[in-house]
Specification:
- By secondary structure, the chain is mainly alpha-helical.
- It is built from three helices and no strands.
Length: 89
Amino acid sequence: MFYTIVARIFATLAALYGLYSMVTGFAIGSNWMGDPSAALGRYFGSHTAGEVIDRGFYLVVFAAGLGTLAEISTGIRRMRASSSTDRGL
């Protein structure tokens, strides 16, 4: 159960940071935050806004997969708990 909780927390944080990276990458790419090269160096250390958006997207996909695995783990635990009470254990 400990690892399930840690996976859920990590998936949530990874998804939030990935979304933040994507939004910031779009903001930098559209010159909303001023000079793109200065903003990229200041916030991400990347060469292009596309790299920031790509990394954010990959992080969101990773977080979705990790969250799915955490949900499967929770479901299996609940199924085992309900089957043990059904048998009178």
